[in-house]
Amino acid sequence: MDASLPLALEAVSKTFRTKGRKKQVVNALLNVGLGLKKGEVAGLLGPNGAGKTTLIKILCGLVYPDKGRVLAFGRPFEQTRKQALSRMGVLLEGHRHIFWPLTVVENLKYFGMLKNVPGPALREDIDRLVQFMGLEGKRDVPVRFLSQGMRQKLSVAVTLLGNPDVLLLDEPTQGLDVESLRDLKQRIVRLAKEFQKAILLSTHQMEVAQELCDRILILQQGRILADAPTPELMGYFKGQNFMVTVQGLPLFSRGTQPLAALGIEPDLDEHETGGVNGLVRMRVRVKNGEGLFGVLQGLKAEGAEIVKVEELKRSLEEVFMEILGGKKGDG
To answer: Is 244 found in the same domain as 224?
Structure first.
């Protein structure tokens, strides 16, 4: 593993024993390796129970691995725990680490003192974070009176106390309205690109991961199934998606109809069809350009007029589901 990485896991495994009469061994993580880079937002995706929270807790020392090791700034975590934690900021899911009776500034003061940020530096840190997170008008407002979005911004601000080099963010955008979501996403990007933070972001929101993350890690049943730059991951599966709009196919006027009924199947992976106001829109997935040409030629042979052909971008959710389902493409 590259010693210059701020945080890394090497062949880490972790098991738990369930409580109750029927005790079972659960493999939370199995031989997991990863590295976080400065200036990069890495997205951690996976279904419930995949091991995402366990992975984050191991990275920040809340849970110890059974096998493997954690490296913080090139050194074994257990040898430099205190120094490593002083350079890390951790946001666990929900608002567990802010106090609702306290105001925004009181929360920041309290957690700044816990992080041993000196008095003058803490005052500067608080002023900087209140401005950076857009909390200027909420300085003296108790947390219980804040909106969900403001609470989430405060949680992130607490995470940023002491100017950490590494940020571990578990569901930072969960439950936010559109405006708060857009604002927080912009701030996360700034933290990585402008301030060169290494960020691991765990989320169930595929559109957030696709927009924010430079790299995607997909975890299932404790194993990393994919770890690649987002554009590369999006191209893992061969096939192109198109929206084909045609006119003059009365066959489709009452609903959907397989293209196979027209004898159109060259290099065709799948399709969906629906008709409105005499126009038929077909979402067609083909393996290559020749496959699309065959579909268009077949439609023309049936008397259809091709109105429009649009290429559709694959979504991260589609790729995610294909990886979890093991539907690897031909490449």
So the answer is: no
